[in-house]
Amino acid sequence: MIDIQSKIIEAVNMSVGLAHEIADLFKAEWDARKDIAKTLISLSGATLVFTITFSQSVIKPDTPLFWRYAFVVCWLTFILSLALSFASLWFSMGLSSLPLLMTENTQKIKDAAKEAIGIGKSEPLVSVFLQPFKKITKQEKIALWLLRLSVLCYGLALSIFTVIGVRQLLR
User: Fold this and answer.
1) Is 37 within 8 Å of 92 (Cβ atoms)?
2) Measured CA distances, 50 to 58, 139, 150 (Å)
3) What is the model's pLDDT at position 138?
4) Cα–Cα distance between 116 and 96 in angstroms, integer?
5) Most buried pick, 25, 54, 62, 89, via CB within 10 A?
6) What is the pLDDT of residues 80-95, one digit of tens each?
7) Count of alpha carbons within 13 Å of 130, Cβ hemisphere only?
8) What are phi and psi of 124, to 5 degrees?
9) Residue 2 confidence class, pLDDT cut points 50, 70, 90
């Protein structure tokens, strides 16, 4: 019985170590995504403030309605880019917590290991072991898609703003 308990403790410690290794592997990518989100927040916010501040010099009383709406759409897409970047950053903050989640599950893993040994099947242990990975995987996918949508919105807003600027120059 002592040998089984020592094997269970060894497996639990190994799972926490594995979680640290996996988190270390992805850390550079997760940090890069956070940096991109922070950059988009800065750029979107600055561009939004700048365009609103100087909108009177671009939108004049004789500006057609279409171009006024284009400016509003531009602002809305910058705001959407900001919101999506904040959301991506929010979900990205928890990605590095895999080792912590695995450590929190230590007792559950021990109990599941004992149950697995008792019934002779590994399903209870595998199920408990994979819970933190599933949680992080879900967060990772959400953060990635939010960031992609934010970049798309920023690109769209910048494109609209560029078209408006070129139109002003050609006028």
Assistant:
1) yes
2) 12, 33, 19
3) 92
4) 29
5) 89
6) 999 999 999 999 988 8
7) 8
8) -60, -40
9) low
DSSP string over 129-165: HHHHHHHHHHHHHHHHHHHHHHHHHHHHHHHHHHHHH
> What length does the chain have?
171
Distance from chain centroid for Cα 99: 18
Tens of pLDDT, residues 130-154: 888 888 889 999 999 999 999 999 9
- 76 to each of 112, 123, 135, 153, how far by Cα in Å? 50, 49, 32, 9
Which residues, 6+ apart, have CB-to-CB distance to 57 below 8 Å?
Answer: none
d(CA 113, CA 125): 5
Determine whether 152 is exposed, middle or buried from the number of CB atoms within 10 Å of its CB (0-12, 13-18, 19+): middle
Cβ neighbours of residue 121 under 8 Å, at least 6 residues apart?
none
Virtual torsion, Cα 160, 165, 170, 171, nearest 10 deg: 100
State the CB neighbour count (10 A cutoff) for residue 90: 14
Residue 110 exposure: Cα atoms within 13 Å on the Cβ side:
9
Residue entry with tokens 């959407």: 80
CA distance 67 to 138: 41
Whole-prediction pTM = 0.81
